[in-house]
Design a protein that fits this description.
Layout (H helix, E strand, L loop, with lengths): L16 H16 L4 H12 L1 H9 L5 H16 L6 H13 L1
Helix pairs in contact: 1-2, 1-3
């Protein structure tokens, strides 16, 4: 892959959707020509979901808050594996949110 474009795909500079499409397609082309099988496979999947990838790079929205809540819920659920049903899980999650 060439090092002539040292800027990351997502940076502080505002970019249009068309610019991001071009930059991503350029990167995908370089990745496919890299000779690394895993990188080629990743580039193919990235190309298949191009609209979502472009939206993630140009829109200011984040799923961080949601992912954090789900991670905490799964942690609580795993910690009580085999010791209770949904009612106990619900009670523990609601107690954790109140605290």
């Amino acid at each position: 892959m060439s090092n002539n474009n040292k800027l990351p795909i997502r940076d502080k500079e505002e970019r249009s959707e068309e610019q991001m499409h071009r930059r991503l397609e350029e990167w995908i082309g370089e990745a496919k020509g890299s000779g690394v099988a895993e990188l080629k496979a990743f580039a193919v999947k990235l190309f298949q979901d191009m609209e979502a990838v472009v939206a993630a790079t140009i829109l200011p929205y984040s799923q961080g808050q949601t992912e954090g809540r789900l991670n905490k819920l799964k942690l609580v659920k795993r910690s009580m594996y085999g010791r209770g049903k949904f009612d106990l899980l619900r009670q523990r999650v609601l107690y954790a949110q109140a605290a």
